[in-house]
Design goal:
- The protein is of the alpha/beta class.
- It folds into 2 domains: about 120 residues, TIM Barrel (Alpha-Beta Barrel); about 60 residues, no CATH class.
- About 50% of the residues lie in helices and about 10% in strands.
- It contains 8 helices and 4 strands, in the order H-E-H-H-E-H-E-H-E-H-H-H.
- Strand 2, helix 4 and strand 3 form a beta-alpha-beta unit.
- Helix 3 packs parallel to helix 4, helix 4 packs parallel to helix 5 and helix 6 runs antiparallel to helix 7.
- The longest helix has 26 residues.
- The model has no long low-confidence stretch (mean pLDDT about 90).
- Bound molecules: iron/sulfur cluster (SF4).
- Iron/sulfur cluster binds next to loops.
């Protein structure tokens, strides 16, 4: 048994919440097919208001007092919390080993990245479905079938990127052209949608 496993057993016996996962928000700008969070919650219409900064800090204080060591902060999309840096600073003062979980698809400023580097995270975990381009191609098809063209286009873009990284001998002839065609068609549809939405806007 590894040292960590031994520690986990001991803390379990002592009923210490050694490893804590805290979802700071259910809001998310993504619409993943596999997401277990209801759509309304992702749009910010959850069953309860989000915890305030002070409430989260209070929970962190309680966890520190109870002996928590590993702290994973997640969502939804955790970077949608405007008070994330304040929460992280508080968590750092409590000496947790902090991990952040994110889809990695929300633009984050250089200042935030610098802040995270200086804070010293235990881990920054990002979603990565696959390095297999055919998986992303298939996901793109699923998104398209459910009317989520923007997400479909994003998956086909990733598929093409993965094809570029693949050895030529691993690429089926015609697959790249087929994905390129679907991506082009999706972009045309999106442009039409945006144009129609722009025309519908009142002057
Ligand atoms: S990124 Fe995560 S929280 Fe957001 S929609 Fe996808 S699975 Fe759900």
């Amino acid at each position: 048994m590894s040292v960590l496993e031994q520690v986990l057993c001991k803390t379990q016996e002592a009923r210490i919440p050694f490893w804590m996962h805290l979802d700071l928000t259910y809001r998310c700008h993504q619409r993943c097919l596999h997401c277990y969070i209801p759509e309304a919650w992702r749009q910010g219409e959850g069953p309860e208001p989000e915890l305030t900064t002070d409430q989260v800090k209070g929970i962190l204080d309680q966890l520190a007092a109870a002996g928590t060591f590993f702290l994973a902060l997640s969502g939804g999309e955790v970077f949608l919390r405007p008070d994330l840096t304040a929460i992280l600073e508080h968590a750092r003062k409590q000496n947790f080993a902090i991990s952040l979980m994110t889809s990695g698809t929300l633009g984050v400023s250089r200042d935030i990245l610098r802040f995270l580097a200086e804070l010293g995270l235990n881990g920054l975990l990002m979603t990565m479905f696959s390095v297999d381009p055919t998986v992303h191609d298939h996901l793109g098809d699923l998104y398209e079938k459910t009317g989520r063209i923007r997400l479909a286009a994003a998956q086909w873009e990733i598929s093409l990127t993965e094809y570029q990284k693949s050895a030529p001998s691993d690429v089926e002839p015609g697959d790249v052209a087929r994905v390129e065609k679907k991506l082009e068609s999706a972009r045309v549809k999106l442009a039409k949608q945006e144009s129609a939405a722009g025309q519908a806007k009142p002057e």
